[in-house]
TrEMBL record:
GN (gene name): rppH
Name used for this protein in its record: RNA pyrophosphohydrolase
Organism name: Tistlia consotensis USBA 355
Keyword terms: Hydrolase
Span of the annotated motif Nudix box: 57-78
Matching InterPro entries: Nudix_hydrolase (IPR020476), NUDIX_hydrolase-like_dom_sf (IPR015797), NUDIX_hydrolase_CS (IPR020084), NUDIX_hydrolase_dom (IPR000086), RppH (IPR022927)
Cofactor: Mn(2+); a divalent metal cation; Mg(2+)
PROSITE patterns in UniProt: NUDIX (PS51462), NUDIX_BOX (PS00893)
Residues covered by the Nudix hydrolase domain: 23-165
Length: 178
């Protein structure tokens, strides 16, 4: 889902000590694989730079991580034809840059702590629709697993490196491009 509380006009930043007192927003992410083990990535609509990411978003109150992942995938991509392959061992976190904290989620969170799921896309590409009511993306493509860290915004690079490391045996064992 889009960031309904994203306010690009919010000004100011907070210092590191203030940020460290804030909690993480709980979220999920989906590493969606095509039959050739390429990963779905889409370019964010709310960024001035070429920021690509995989489908991800917050967990609603009372929602479990896996249903949240299916919901976010459908909301952001239109995709429902999937098979669950794996779940990340741990929750993975990223911190927002200090100047972004006041602009996202009403300044209530320092970043996100996410549970990630690898899923196989079983449908036809005509199922993919990034232009839904809560459009977050302007375009999408399939990428190799190894290029993911180079596509993401700098503050999420380490999280994407950890995803590549964790899911590489699952994907590369199936012949993914490196």
């Amino acid at each position: 889902m889009s960031h309904p509380s994203y306010d690009p006009t919010a000004s100011g930043s907070i210092d590191r000590a203030e940020a460290e007192r804030l909690p993480y927003r709980l979220g999920v992410g989906v590493l969606l694989l095509d039959p050739g083990n390429r990963v779905f990535v889409a370019q964010r609509a709310d960024m001035k730079t070429a920021a690509w990411q995989m489908p991800q978003g917050g967990i609603d109150q009372g929602e479990a991580p896996l249903p949240a992942a299916y919901r976010e995938l459908q909301e952001e991509t239109g995709v429902t034809s999937v098979e669950l392959l794996a779940e990340s061992r741990d929750w993975l976190a990223y911190d927002l840059p200090l100047d972004l904290i006041p602009k996202l989620w009403g300044g209530r969170f320092r970043g996100q702590k996410q549970k990630w799921f690898a899923m196989r896309f079983l449908g036809d590409e005509s199922e993919i629709d990034i232009f839904g009511p809560d459009q977050e993306f302007t375009t999408w493509r399939w990428a190799s697993l190894r290029e993911l860290p180079q596509l993401i915004v700098p503050f999420k690079v380490e999280l994407y490196r950890r995803l590549v490391e964790e899911f590489a045996p699952l994907i590369e064992g199936g012949g993914a491009a490196q």
